[in-house]
Amino acid sequence: xxxxxxxLVLILLYSSISYATTSSFTIxxxxxxxxxxxxxxxxxxxxxxxxLALSNNAPKSMKIQYMKAYIDTAELICKExxxxxxxxxxxxRAEYFFITSDFNNASQEATIxxxxxxxxxxxxxxxxxxxxxxxxxxxxxxxKESIDYYAQSIEVARKNRxxxxxx
Length: 167
Hints:
Layout: H1 2-30, H2 44-54, H3 63-81, H4 87-99, H5 103-120, H6 123-140, H7 143-160
Helix pairs in contact: 2-3, 2-4, 3-4, 4-5, 4-6, 5-6, 6-7
């Protein structure tokens, strides 16, 4: 008898939780509230996955897989919503190619990110792209270009008072 009551309580609890979760979505729609993914021009999901791809929170052994998954998700959202790939996502792709030693694609993606950021006037991405290109040039042995890119990154950061680039 005790087991029967316990099972009955679990079934009632499960049914109330499932009803609450399904009804909350209909209540939100009834009040005219939107989900984040309802807006076709909303780029917050793209920026979220791009920042996750660029973060270093994953373990080193799984970093490449997580990074690729986040980049693919952001690209899929761009494709579904018919949005141009933002410069920060190009920079994330450049980082991925750099980690996987695909230097030609890394350079192309970083250059695209820099051009798009300059056109949009996004100073943070300009500084990050110049920093990446400095790191890329240093790795490939072009030390003069590396110093120039690092200097441009520092100049943009100083000029616009960006945090996180200067000590």
